[in-house]
Design brief:
The chain has 116 residues and is mostly helical. It contains five helices and no strands. The relative contact order is 0.14.
């Protein structure tokens, strides 16, 4: 890229530590790509933080939707809306390189997946 130094890498480059942090929010497939293709070779605290947080978010989403599948669609939609708000908060924190925990699950995710 013209005008950039070796230390400046664009978002989307596997060399940018922010890339894994942002990609993990793009579905479970994005999380897998971020972990196995981006994070494994270049571990950073920013990427690890957001990988932990989204892993627990996806686990909760799966568990909650599985448990209340028989419940009314309105209830499921409201839970998915809450999940989406948490996802947006984490996604924008990753974009702005902040390590701010999501409400409800952020601190748990850091404790549960501290070896990630």
């Amino acid at each position: 890229m013209p005008g950039t130094t070796d230390k400046e890498v664009y978002l989307g480059s596997p060399d940018n530590p922010k890339t894994a942090a942002v990609v993990c929010y793009i579905t479970l497939i994005g999380w897998l790509i971020a972990y196995f293709a981006l994070y494994k070779n270049a571990k950073t605290s920013l990427a690890a933080y957001h990988l932990r947080q989204t892993l627990l978010l996806y686990i909760f989403l799966f568990a909650v939707n599985s448990l209340i599948y028989v419940a009314t669609k309105a209830f499921i939609i409201s839970l998915d809306f809450i999940w989406f708000i948490l996802w947006l908060m984490g996604f924008f924190n990753a974009i702005y390189e902040r390590q701010k925990p999501m409400p409800i699950i952020g601190k748990w995710s850091q404790k549960l997946f501290k070896k990630l």
